[in-house]
Each structure stands twice: as structure tokens, then as C-alpha cells.
Amino acid sequence: MSETFIYETTVISDWIDYNGHMQDAYYGLIFSYAVDAVQDAIGFDAAYRQRTGCTIYLLEDHKYFLKEVKLGAELRVETVVLDSDEKRFHLHLTMQHDGTPVAISETMELHVNQNPEPRAAAMPPEIAERLASARVPNPDAFDRRSRKMMLWRST
Question: What is the model's pTM?
């Protein structure tokens, strides 16, 4: 069964640039917070990181800016899992304001054991299963602005 993960925030004045709309860097910050929320929801939370010495690294990120966002805008980021394997998961995030998409992001995340030094590692089976069950049945149905990420296809 697929699952949509939700993250919500409101645009603050510190995020507004000299053009009077949200600076591009803050789209990335909001998408990053949305990914953190997904990670917490599937079991890669602070307790997991402390207990295992494992974490998630961002491997690849693509952003598409569709509409400008102004001060005070209430934003909702909907995230779905497009695909996953034993070490990686591919996410599609849609940032919306008043139900209208304002930005899209696709990310490739990697499970990493940091001890004794960072290296890719297989996820625990229960988390891998949670990701697999959260996957959307038809990832090509999404309004995706890029082809599948090169890293995903090449490994």
C-alpha cells in the first residue's frame, strides 16, 4: 500500500529575498525538512541514529521551481517513495501552496553506517519493508521533470 508523507510549514521573513519572494535556498531547506520527517516516520529517527551509528546521506537532488512563494504562505510538502532497494530510496516531493504545486524535488537517499568511517550499508529489514510498502504503484504517473536519476540506473 503506497503512502504519502506530509510536512507543513509557513514562510517566514528570513526566507524572503530582495525580490520579495522566497529565496531558492529555502525551497531546499523545506524539502530537506520534509525528507527528515519521512525518515523519522519510517524509523530512521534520532534514537535509531544514536543506537546504530547509521544515518541517511543525500546522494542526489533535483529541484524545479514552478511558482514564486511569498511571505506567510502556508506550504504543504507531499512526499512519496518512488523506489527503494536495500541501501537507497528515491523520493518525489511536491511543495504546494493553496493546493497548487509551487516546486518539485526528487532525491536519492543512501543508508550509511558511519562507524568506523562512512560507508553504504543495508537497511534493517523492517525499515526496508516499510519503504517497499510505501512505494507508489505507478511512479511514472507523477509530474516528474527529469528522467530517473542517473545514479539509480547505473548501480
Answer: 0.88
pLDDT at 139: 77
Q: In a 3-state reduction of DSSP, which class is residue 132? A: helix
Cα–Cα distance measured from residue 140 to residue 135, given in angstroms and rounded to the nearest whole number: 12
Phi-psi region of 76 (alpha: psi -120 to 50; beta: other; left: phi over 0): beta
Q: 138 phi and psi, to 5 degrees?
A: -135, 80
H or E element at residue 8: strand 5-10
Domains present along the chain, CATH in parentheses: 5-154 (3.10.129.10)
The x, y and z cell numbers of residue 37, run together, are 520527517
Q: What is the mean pLDDT of each run of 10 residues along the chain (155 residues)?
A: 91 97 97 97 96 96 94 98 96 96 95 96 96 87 53 41
Q: Are the CB atoms for 139 and 147 separated by under 8 Å?
A: no
C-alpha–C-alpha distance, residues 62 and 92, integer Å: 10
